[in-house]
Automatic annotation (TrEMBL):
GO cellular component term, pick one: plasma membrane
Residues with attached carbohydrate: 96
Binding site for chloride: 549
Domain of life: Eukaryota
Name of protein: Angiotensin-converting enzyme
Catalysed reaction equations from the record: Release of a C-terminal dipeptide, oligopeptide-|-Xaa-Yaa, when Xaa is not Pro, and Yaa is neither Asp nor Glu. Thus, conversion of angiotensin I to angiotensin II, with increase in vasoconstrictor activity, but no action on angiotensin II
InterPro entries reported for this sequence: Peptidase_M2
UniProt feature, compositional bias: Low complexity: 658-670
């Protein structure tokens, strides 16, 4: 996540904050999983409490605003101490997966859940909505969030166990090699990821895809059903309708789903052009027996387990393949780079902006290489231990360009932690969860430029003004940034539908693939059934990590980048062709760093539109900066697709996605995936029963 990984136990408590990468597996996945602060949280009316919570010794002698301010000081201190304990337990488990560390993590989270529930009962006594000070009111708004701790103790512990089991299945899953069936010790990192990146054998890729989905996702379906049931119970105890409403709390918008769908409609034309171009390149390489030239793209061909980033296909899809590759991995190896040196290079980027260096404990306690003899979550992640001194990254670093850029991203999270470390605990979070990811990636945008890589001595003999080279560079970024957009959106559209009861267990797999077909334009390489549970082949699903933050971040990072480039004098919005936005690097610009730091210091002390305005002068998210960044590529793609007569979009997939297709007598116009009859009967009976109760 980045991780941005949210281990459910901590996210349920609303405590630990570690960030990682969006792409599980490929650590550029940057950007994918942090624990979402108050991920399962809700407003509790100051005059009432959620069902199931017991009120003990309620009244306090002094509930004045002055007394409330003093109470908050004490509360922030106590929260920080508990968060430190919880994060340490989560770190110990994630860096050494054993029964002992799991038991410790479960025990710590259960103990803190009890404490938090008792503290919540005390906190809701204060009539905070009647206070005048907006700062006090905002802190109480966050403090009256209970999250999954509202569950009865046995349910809370069971939820923790279920999510931990799913995470363990994912993290320890192994498959057999395609060429040597006796070698059944291939892990996602690094072996499977490496095969997906390098292999151009469609049968090997299909084998890897099918076996990974069987070893990881297929074993989690029943556990996931239980997770959904208990999590929704917890959401309702927080006066929320379901977990979807709870997850989107920090975006502070009643129309959030509508807002992000509008963002998608802005950037969709660019994605469709990319998709059509890539499908043609794949068709040229593999032929009509492997994929259709007008249908969805088989997901196993995209160089990534989830087809969420296409950067591994650059070698045969580049606009100008004859030019030297922009991947500096070989140069990193040639220059004897180590994991530590890569981290030091990233730190130098931040200090050149007049931002903070990594503190001593960062270098002492971070895990930057995979230790031998231990099972651990290798997903790149950044961690805040809430004591103002301890900040860490956990990452199984490989000496390659992708990981060099991932380090810049993860260190962006650490920089955010460092900048708001003096805020009260209740404000130690990004303005919204998308902001944290965007900050990591806005640094990535500059670090990946041809200009910056030349400055580091990693790109030699290249002319940064060469139009063909720059188009290749822009295309390579689009293979990462643009390709991700629909996946970043549908991951949570899918889960929101489950939490809301729109998608039921009987059609879990079908509905997953319907969304992937609709938004990504991909299909499975083989027919699927409801015995499969393909969503759980993605870490963020099994680890209960909200994902729409990555979609949001991929939009707003370009807004941030444009503003920082203007401040650095590297982009003129009135003459964008003089210094194109995609060529801008803010390296060594103290002015840009100071502007960024001013926003980072706010944490979540202000609503996110206020924080965005500090940096960009805008109060809304929009996709115009992203489109401006990729405009030269967009124009080129349209020209190429017109030349070859490509279909923009895709015809319906011929694959079976899960629920068996209906007989040929299905009425014209009806969905080929109708709801099962027993489900409809059950719903009708339930409706009748509820009607009787209401009389």
């Amino acid at each position: 996540m980045v991780l941005k990984l949210a281990g459910p136990p901590l996210s349920m408590l609303g405590f630990s904050q570690f960030r990682g990468s969006w792409s599980s597996g490929v650590l550029l996945d940057r950007k994918m999983l942090k624990l979402l602060l108050f991920t399962t949280a809700a407003f509790i009316n100051e005059f009432g409490i959620a069902a199931g919570a017991e009120v003990s010794a309620a009244s306090s002698n002094d509930l004045s605003e002055q007394a409330a301010a003093e109470y908050l000081k004490k509360l922030n201190k106590e929260f920080g101490e508990k968060a430190n304990l919880a994060t340490n337990a989560e770190w110990d488990y994630g860096s050494n997966i054993t029964p002992e560390t799991l038991e410790k993590k479960l025990n710590v989270s259960a103990e803190i859940a009890k404490w938090k529930k008792n503290k919540w009962v005390e906190t809701i006594k204060y009539p905070w909505k009647t206070y005048k000070d907006e700062n006090i009111k905002r802190q109480f708004k966050f403090a009256t969030i209970l999250g999954m701790a509202a569950l009865p103790e046995d349910k809370f512990k069971r939820l923790d166990e279920v999510t931990s089991k799913m995470e363990s299945i994912y993290s320890t899953a192994k498959i057999c090699d395609f060429h040597n069936k006796s070698n059944c010790n291939l892990s996602l990192e690094p072996e499977i990821t490496e095969i997906l990146r390098k292999s151009r054998d469609p049968e090997e890729l299909k084998h890897i895809w099918v076996e990974w989905h069987k070893a990881s996702g297929g074993k989690c379906k029943k556990l996931f059903e239980e997770y959904v049931q208990i999590s929704n119970e917890g959401a309702k105890l927080n006066n929320m309708t379901d977990l979807a409403e709870l997850w989107n709390f920090d975006f502070e918008s009643d129309a959030f789903e509508k807002d992000i769908l509008e963002l998608w409609s802005q950037v969709k034309p660019l994605y469709l052009q990319m998709h059509a171009y890539m499908r043609k390149k794949l068709w040229d390489k593999y032929g009509e027996n492997v994929l259709s030239r007008t249908g969805p793209i088989p997901a196993h061909l995209m160089g990534n387990m989830w087809a969420q980033t296409w950067s591994n296909l650059f070698d045969f899809t580049a606009p100008y393949p004859g030019l030297e590759s922009l991947d500096v991995t070989d140069e990193l190896i040639k220059q004897n780079y180590t994991a530590l040196k890569m981290f030091k290079v990233a730190e130098n980027f931040f200090t050149s902006l007049n931002l903070s260096a990594m503190p001593p404990l960062f270098w002492e306690r971070s895990i930057i290489e995979k230790p031998e003899g231990k099972e651990l979550v290798c997903h790149a992640s950044a961690w805040d231990f809430y004591n103002g001194e301890d900040f860490r990254i956990k990452m199984c670093t490989r000496v390659e360009m992708e990981d060099l850029l991932t380090i810049h991203h993860e260190m962006g999270h650490i920089q955010y932690f460092l900048q708001y470390k003096d805020q009260p605990y209740l404000y130690k979070e990004g303005a919204n969860s998308g902001f944290h990811e965007a900050v990591g990636d806005v640094i990535f945008l500059s670090a990946a430029t041809t200009k910056h890589l030349q400055r580091l001595g990693l790109l030699k003999g290249q002319n940064s003004n060469d139009d063909k080279q720059e188009l290749n560079s822009l295309f390579q970024r689009a293979l990462d940034k643009v390709s991700f957009l629909p996946f970043g959106l549908l991951m949570d559209l899918y889960r929101w539908n489950i939490f809301k009861g729109k998608t039921l267990p009987a059609t879990y797999n079908r509905d997953w693939w319907l969304l992937r077909e609709k938004y990504q334009g991909v299909e499975p390489p083989v027919d699927r059934t409801e015995q499969d549970f393909d969503p759980a082949a993605k870490y963020h699903i099994v680890a209960s990590v909200p994902y729409v933050r990555y979609f949001v971040s991929f939009i707003i990072q370009f807004q941030f980048h444009r503003s920082l480039c203007i401040e650095a004098g590297e982009f003129d919005p009135n003459n964008p062709s003089s210094k194109p936005l995609h060529e801008c690097s803010i390296y060594q610009s103290a002015k840009a760093g100071n502007l960024l730091g001013n926003m980072l210091k706010l944490g979540s002390s202000k609503p996110w539109p206020d924080a965005m305005e500090v940096l960009t002068g805008q109060r809304k998210m929009d996709g115009t900066a992203l489109l401006q960044f990729f405009q030269p590529l967009h124009d080129w793609l349209k020209e190429q697709n017109e030349k070859t007569g490509e279909k923009i979009g895709w015809e319906p997939s011929k694959r079976n996605f899960g629920q068996q297709q209906q007989p040929a007598t299905t009425p014209a116009g009806a969905s080929k995936y109708a709801a099962p009859t027993d489900v409809l009967v059950t719903l009708v009976c339930l409706a009748c029963f509820l009607r009787l109760l209401s009389r």
